[in-house]
Amino acid sequence: MPLYESLRPLPELRVLVTAGASGIGACIARAFHEAGSRVHVCDIDRAALDRLVTETPGITGSMADVSVAADVDLVFDDVRGCLGGLDVLINNAGIAGPTGPIESFDASGWERTVSVNLNSQFYFARRAVPLLKESTADPVLIAMSSVAGRLGYAFRTPYASTKWAIVGLTKSLAMELGPQGIRVNAILPGVVEGERMDGVIASRAAALGLGVEQMREEYLRKISLRRMVSASDVAAMALFLCSPAARNLSGQAISVDGNLEYL
């Protein structure tokens, strides 16, 4: 196989993207669709889901709260019906969680962050693995962590805790599933430009008593390349990890962050 060909995912991969109707998830879903994969997404946002499947014919979707195991079971009923199996799971769902000193949080904010960010990874992995074991297309599980999964993140402790846990889950599953030929990796996006990051910056600025633009400059100064990354940068890494060129990459936590030095 020519080297450049090995950089492309295999055609007709059957791909499931959680929280795939907007943001990074939608960018990943569209990228795999354009690469010739058959893509199914789930999302809690009905309007965003309807918009995605309308604008991108061929992508199918399910409504689901990823933190609810019964909803996840229904997603896999749809996956079997729409895709007939699974070659790639991209566990993308996550929320920012509360911002502030730990003593200011109530239990509900912590528990919701853990439920969406971490429990969902477990719910989807346990249902996906039997299908991935049946795949003959070099199956892959990609977990979306964060640069906050390798760095401490003051005032964002619920979020950072779940993202570190996802890296541990990834490395453990890579060991567990490697003998069955299933590769498991985590992507750790850094500061991703867009509406969600705008909200994070505003919340953190408020927590620290700073102006929003001052807070934005603080974020950029922490990045060696002095720029945010895009959702497309993250999607490109996901495509690469599902390509033959990445056939010996497993158990890795790969940052896409312009070298974010600290948080």
From TrEMBL:
A Pfam entry, by short name: adh_short_C2
Sequence intervals crossing the membrane: none
Alphabetized UniProt keyword annotations: Oxidoreductase
Family: Belongs to the short-chain dehydrogenases/reductases (SDR) family.
Name the UniProt record assigns to this protein: SDR family oxidoreductase
Species assigned in the record: Variovorax ginsengisoli
